[in-house]
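Question: I have long wanted to understand how a fold can be written as tokens. Here is the record:
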Amino acid sequence: MIPAAFDYERAESADHALALLTEHGDEAKLIAGGHSLLPLMKLRLAQPSMLIDIGRLTDLSYVRDQGDHLAIGALTRHRDLETSSLLQAEAPLMAHVAGQVGDPQVRHRGTIGGSIAHADPASDLPAVVLALGGDMVIRGADGERVVPARDFYTGFLECQVGPDELLTEVRVPKVASAGWSFQKFNRRAQDWAIVGVAAVKANGSSGVALVNMGSTPVYAGGVVDALAGGASTEEAAEHAADGTEPPSDINASAEFREHLARVLVRRALEEAGD
């Protein structure tokens, strides 16, 4: 398929990108790695009249120690997340999952900001940030605002980033001593997950999030509440599908996804340990 015609401009800075978004309004889309947007454009499910290229804004590519949390620039490539010694030491779940995204070509071009802002419920990294209890930093003409990951996703492929705003940073707590696990069931290597689970456990608290179990990335609140109430791993895992609305498609029925969620949550909690 061939995308509809569009204009193109390369942003020289984050402020320049915001100015272009303000100028072109709803007709503009940001592009960095392009692995989410370009397939939609080829299918003509997205038809922006202006593409604003932010892929070369090096000031938004970083992993920094900010004391009680790590700050990750939105244009940090998946490969850079995977190989970051800081992430490996302080948030190893993030580094591990980044190394499982797509194939090497995707990991060398795709960015965490693109993955997060695209808000695909079948994507892995949004669930990781949910499980870690992270925050998103959004910049607009009126300044910056910080949105908790649990409030960030608003619908299918929709999030809190407005048409004239830019996701600039992802923040996650430092959890060096935490147990963690990422479980993913797919038919073939590099396929989207039929169901995935990210889990973190430390000092009596936990965070669990699900991949492909609803119209948005899902925080498994039923599991977390059960664990907080003293439930065993097996008992807590039975709440994995609580409040979810998994899709039925050619890969799996909703009922099968619910079953997978319970199985994978149990495995993830067992691997994460106490």
